[in-house]
Amino acid sequence: MQKTKLAVNWIEDKQPVQQGTYFAAVRYQTGFGAYEVIAWDGEQWQLDASVRVVGWIAFDDFLKNLDINWPVSDQKADAAFKAQYEANKDNFKPDEFVEVE
After folding, report:
1. What is the rounded CA–CA span in Å between residue 27 and residue 34?
2. Whole-model pTM over 0.90
3. What are 4-55's pLDDT values in tens digits?
4. Which strands make up the sheet holding 52-58, listed edge to edge?
5. Domain extents for the chain?
6. At a CB cut-off of 8 Å and minimum separation 6, what does 47 contact?
């Protein structure tokens, strides 16, 4: 895999306003630094208190900067979904769509 440089506009020295998932640069007590995907619960980072978040960006903003190919082994499912969508797109009624978690 070829390495690609990605410039990130880190938010530093302040906490997120909204709960969510964030891509963060963290510093451990050992001095080691790493990148982590971390949840913010609205009041604190969901990680060990000894780990210091030194910069962060909303995870969805981070992903908007990436164009990643999908795994080849699953492309048949992707093609089947696309074919189903094309066959039924004229019958789609947005007010009938319900997302279930």
Report:
1. 7
2. no
3. 888 899 999 999 999 999 999 999 999 999 999 999 999 999 999 899 999 9
4. 33-40, 20-27, 52-58
5. 20-94
6. 26, 36, 38, 53
